Amino acid sequence: MIDFRYHIVSLISVFLALAVGIALGAGPLKETIGDTLTGQVAQLRTEKDALRGELDTANGSLKDAQAFLSAASPQLVGGTLPGRRVAVVLLGKNDQSIVDAITSQLKAAGASVSAQVQVTDTWTSSAKPTFRQTLAAQLTPYLDPAPAQNATVDTQLAEALAQSLTGANPSSPNTLSESAGTVLQTLVKAELITTTADVTAPADAIVVVAGPIATNGAPAATPDPTTVTSAEMEIARSAQARSEGAVIVGGSVKQGLVTDILADNTVSSRLTTVSDGHEVVGQISVPLALNARIGGVNGHYGTGTDLTPIPTTVKLEPVGRTPTPAGSTGSTASSSGATG
Length: 340
Description:
Layout lengths: L1 H25 L3 H48 L7 E7 L4 H13 L3 E8 L9 H11 L13 H14 L1 E2 L2 E5 L1 H12 L3 E3 L9 E6 L14 H17 L3 E5 L7 H7 L1 H4 L3 E3 L5 H15 L5 E2 L13 E2 L21 E2 L1
């Protein structure tokens, strides 16, 4: 009986409290509570409108800055790559408009695009390791210098790609060497790469545009990102080793090749990167960075931490393309020089 009465008293107390709250809310405190809530809502609405205005202003300023940079780019990059032939190598999925913008800046700098090559998924497909190993063995005799005997398949194929784009005919430096042409055709027929047009002239320099790693496709044939970036790293190394200079360009995705290069002190000391290839400022930086790299200056450019905003250019000497008579010795590579 005592427990029952205790519960009754407790329930009465709860309902009494509810009744008092309702009475106050509908009576003396009604206006106060309503006014308070109305004021808070109005304040939040005002703050939201202010933030929207600030965002619109910032976006407008950004568009104005990009428009200014686009208009000024011919003056910024003009003459920085005089007479250079540049091969553009595309890795992963890239927005064609970004690729077109980068090639436009290269041309504005005085360069010509000797090749545009897309590396396909077959390059790293987990379903075709034996195929790639056999192909690499077939290509090695055409490579000079040849990869080390203990070189991985990734290294062998990367060397093949770089040399196929830069190998010049000693007696006719404006044409590909016979070996380079053979290697390039073999890579195309094997569907490891595609080209937008016939490649007839050797490149002096290489720009590697590293897009996001594709995650779709058949699970059995899709390698993990580590495998992809490892293969791409070898392409970047060979691009630098077999040319006057190379630049590795990243986009909006903060992972992949450029991120891996920046994370490795040894690799980053040898390879030049541009981290904002999807922005106008990054696209302008590509020819400027390539100019600096050809001139012997390695750097990492972009808007992130520890990155240099804009490359400092040097004056490059014209490219030397003197034919080498058959049987003579000496370097067959294009000669260049830079003055500060």
